[in-house]
Amino acid sequence: MSHSIQFSTPSRTLHLPHSRLHLPHSRLHRPLSSFSFRQFPLTSTFKHTSLRASSSPSPDSSSSSSVLHSPNGTPAVKSEERSSGIDVDTVTEAELKENGFRSTRRTKLICTIGPATCGFEQLEALAEGGMNVARLNMCHGTRDWHRNVIRSVRRLNEEKGFAVAIMMDTEGSEIHMGDLGGEASAKAEDGEVWTFTVRAFDASRPQRTISVSYDGFAEDVRVGDELLVDGGMVRFDVIEKIGPDVKCLCTDPGLLLPRANLTFWRDGSLVRERNAMLPTISSKDWLDIDFGIAEGVDFIAVSFVKSAEVINHLKSYLAARPGGGDIGVIAKIESIDSLTNLEEIILASDGAMVARGDLGAQIPLEQVPAAQQKIVKVCRELNKPVIVASQLLESMIEYPTPTRAEVADVSEAVRQRSDALMLSGESAMGQFPDKALTVLRSVSLRIERWWREEKRYEATPLQAISSASSDKISEEICNSASKMANNLGVDAVFVYTKNGHMASLVSRCRPDCPIFAFTNTTSVRRRLNLQWGLIPFRLSFSEDMESNLNKTFSLLKSRGMIKSGDLVIAVSDMLQSIQVMNVP
């Protein structure tokens, strides 16, 4: 017999402030059946709320017959039996079996897919290395190329048991370079003179000539302006204007990449007037968005967001199209405008990306770390996943090991409790994409382990974000469940959620243990793979929590992912409750 403690809410009013919930700091060393309610000194005030102990029978061992084996030898589920089985990421499953609950990585990893990683075997290697989300940069490649990558990722998920989500990143209408005449890159050396032009070339372009996407470029730029490529990776001084051509002297050498962003500075200040007049979502972006809807991407990242109005407009457009309402919208914070309107943009979006490369071209470099910390903090407070991106391991595009400064940068992003870290050129075109991913994974695991060893539970209070009564209840339940998980030293928090919201509320609290998020929808499962600490499972469940728990215990035990005696806390958005129990 296994026992649980359940806080059920038959009415819509529940007063359970987690700051007033005091629990023992030591782990339970005996089954909960030996505890009485007096041993849990609950000082919260309940209104129309019952507190009861429920007893659940041992799971029926016959229910494990639906679990089969995947190609790598780990249990999997055939499509015709998915209604009674469970889907989980095969890498996470192996980690849980070999090293236990505390081995799981909480910080999620995103890889930009490019020529270096677009093959099926390369994508599989990234997934096995810990990739949670595959990013497609619509600045590069054709839609047919992106379609092939999307279908390869979907096939990988279906055949190999992964849950890799797909994020499509729009190009935006800011000023960009052209495609370099088909070349993968070009090297600009110190002292060379290059020509930036608005002319289109029918034949091959002249040597050291770059086309620019903005027709008014030659009119707006002035002699003496400083031109920054890709957030300052290469710098030029404007020395001459001849019709549609702008002659520039390279002052900081570097690698020029196709479709790189261009900004220009005058008298020490960013020239913003022209970019401010450009639309956030260009005509090409709208075509790419329609493509993303048709292909069923999980997220769309919007470049150079200036206000919440843009996000709301896109979300209404997505909601009006079949399948579009399931797509999450990620706001890229990479301009002065986006920092000015930060909170309203994050509130309107489904997540945010700290795009430090372009952001560093619009604000002084020394301000970027503080801006990153602020963005991460605001996203956490508003319960929106946040991605730290750009130049995390830039040197690994060419070298097999990172600089020590890059490792420290990654460590700081993990220490700030960011939801996800993103590789850009390192995985898209770098020579060592697998090694770069390994560095992100190993650094994340080490910093997370150090955090747990130091018992650095979150001390910063999180503001209430819910307005509706039922949402307030869910929020308080998740806050209390997370605090109980830390105080009791539980092995995992189980969350049963249909739309993913309650799982995100638990993730927001950053509990010390992993969070098993069970959902009955494949698309929700993939989207949950972006959020900190969540291990998303696809599982068909009912409104009966005892039945759900029995089924979950049976399936996970049959696959060796949990064992009898493990202590778990279970919450659900179907029956707003907290249950604490040992696995029977």
Automatic annotation (TrEMBL):
<feature type="domain" description="Pyruvate kinase barrel">
    <location>
        <begin position="105"/>
        <end position="436"/>
    </location>
</feature>
<feature type="region of interest" description="Disordered">
    <location>
        <begin position="50"/>
        <end position="91"/>
    </location>
</feature>
<dbReference type="InterPro" id="IPR040442">
    <property type="entry name" value="Pyrv_kinase-like_dom_sf"/>
</dbReference>
<feature type="compositionally biased region" description="Low complexity">
    <location>
        <begin position="54"/>
        <end position="66"/>
    </location>
</feature>
<dbReference type="Pfam" id="PF02887">
    <property type="entry name" value="PK_C"/>
</dbReference>
<dbReference type="InterPro" id="IPR036918">
    <property type="entry name" value="Pyrv_Knase_C_sf"/>
</dbReference>
<dbReference type="InterPro" id="IPR018209">
    <property type="entry name" value="Pyrv_Knase_AS"/>
</dbReference>
<comment type="similarity">
    <text>Belongs to the pyruvate kinase family.</text>
</comment>
<dbReference type="InterPro" id="IPR015795">
    <property type="entry name" value="Pyrv_Knase_C"/>
</dbReference>
<dbReference type="InterPro" id="IPR015813">
    <property type="entry name" value="Pyrv/PenolPyrv_kinase-like_dom"/>
</dbReference>
<dbReference type="InterPro" id="IPR015793">
    <property type="entry name" value="Pyrv_Knase_brl"/>
</dbReference>
<keyword id="KW-0324">Glycolysis</keyword>
<keyword id="KW-0418">Kinase</keyword>
<protein>
    <recommendedName>
        <fullName>Pyruvate kinase</fullName>
        <ecNumber>2.7.1.40</ecNumber>
    </recommendedName>
</protein>
<keyword id="KW-0808">Transferase</keyword>
<dbReference type="InterPro" id="IPR015806">
    <property type="entry name" value="Pyrv_Knase_insert_dom_sf"/>
</dbReference>
<feature type="domain" description="Pyruvate kinase C-terminal">
    <location>
        <begin position="475"/>
        <end position="574"/>
    </location>
</feature>
<keyword id="KW-0670">Pyruvate</keyword>
<keyword id="KW-0479">Metal-binding</keyword>
<dbReference type="InterPro" id="IPR001697">
    <property type="entry name" value="Pyr_Knase"/>
</dbReference>
<dbReference type="InterPro" id="IPR011037">
    <property type="entry name" value="Pyrv_Knase-like_insert_dom_sf"/>
</dbReference>
<dbReference type="Pfam" id="PF00224">
    <property type="entry name" value="PK"/>
</dbReference>
<keyword id="KW-0547">Nucleotide-binding</keyword>
<keyword id="KW-0067">ATP-binding</keyword>
<keyword id="KW-0460">Magnesium</keyword>
<comment type="pathway">
    <text>Carbohydrate degradation; glycolysis; pyruvate from D-glyceraldehyde 3-phosphate: step 5/5.</text>
</comment>
